[in-house]
Write a structure and sequence with these properties.
This protein is an alpha+beta fold. It has one domain: q2cbj1_9rhob like domain (Jelly Rolls, Sandwich). It is 23% helix and 22% strand. It has six helices and twelve strands. The strands form two sheets. Strands 1, 2, 3, 4, 6, 9, 11 and 12 form an eight-stranded antiparallel beta sheet that branches. Strands 5-10-7-8 form a four-stranded antiparallel beta sheet, with no helix packed on it. The chain binds 2-oxoglutaric acid. The site of 2-oxoglutaric acid (AKG) has 11 residues, from strand 10 and strand 11.
Length: 259
């Protein structure tokens, strides 16, 4: 699915956009998955509306912005489990990470038309730091994304800087790291943007009349250990490619005692 040149590009730039990883039918299944989660969460009165807090916009503007974000969506709909074990994903991930690939978590990010919130520039590292920095995001586009509906922006090569201090752990200073200074990565539904968790990235608000639905998988080499207990939960660890070379006992009683 990708060439040696693509792998070299990823290593040099910290990101890689791969076209047509998923076909129309697979995208439709995942779109239905996302819509179903929102519907069921709304019915259960657990609708998660998030807007980034911070100083990138005046407070009254921030209040209007909405982002529907849910974690661990592969527990909600099997289309996402199928996406994780898709042969195209497998072929790409083994090139970018290695023969063994493990899921850290999944999430969906829906920017509704006209008020879909921005993501100020940030690295994902502070949320779930690991020792060897093998972690990458696979951002699966379920809608065509462009400048108007808030496509992702990345800063090519920024992963080489290593971890950068973040404000309150969440985002980089919006004046020092404006989203516009990143490289816009417009993509079509079915395309996947892979980027390392040290690559600075973000996205602008959705000002169009179109929804922007993305699903994001965070994946790592299972031998790359977390350096703290941030963002660790009982559901982590699904093997996506190869084997887990270290045996870990999944014993809920023991895990609860250790928590
Ligand atoms: O999908 C987006 O617009 C940005 C997502 C993102 O930056 C993140 O989840 O870390």
């Amino acid at each position: 699915m990708i060439s040696e040149k693509d792998v070299a590009f990823y290593q040099e730039n910290g990101y890689l956009l791969v076209k047509n990883v998923f076909n129309h039918e697979e995208v439709t299944r995942m779109q239905k998955g996302v819509d179903g989660i929102i519907q069921r969460a709304t019915e259960a009165e657990l609708d998660r509306n998030h807007a980034w807090q911070g100083d990138y916009l005046p407070k009254r503007e921030l209040k209007k912005l909405v982002l529907k974000g849910f974690h661990d969506i592969h527990y909600q709909d099997a289309s996402f489990t199928a996406a994780l074990s898709h042969p195209n994903m497998n072929a790409i991930l083994t090139e970018l990470i290695g023969p063994n690939v493990q899921l850290h978590h999944s999430k969906m990010l829906v920017k509704p038309p006209e008020n879909g919130a921005a993501f100020p520039m940030h690295q994902d590292y502070p949320y779930f730091p690991h020792k060897n920095h093998t972690m990458l995001a696979a951002s699966v586009h379920l809608d065509d994304a462009d400048l108007e509906n808030g496509c992702l922006h990345v800063v090519p090569g920024s992963h080489h800087q290593g971890p950068i201090p973040h404000r309150g752990q969440h985002y980089l200073d919006a004046k020092e790291y404006p989203i516009d200074q990143g490289k816009a990565c417009p993509a079509k539904a079915g395309d996947v943007l892979f980027f390392n968790y040290l690559t600075i990235h973000g996205s602008k608000p959705n000002t169009s009349d179109r929804t922007r639905r993305n699903v994001l998988f965070q994946l790592r080499d299972p031998e790359d250990p977390p350096v703290n207990n941030e963002h660790v939960n009982w559901g982590q660890g699904l093997m996506v490619c190869g084997q887990n070379p270290t045996y870990r006992e999944y014993n809920i009683q023991k895990m609860l005692q250790q928590a």
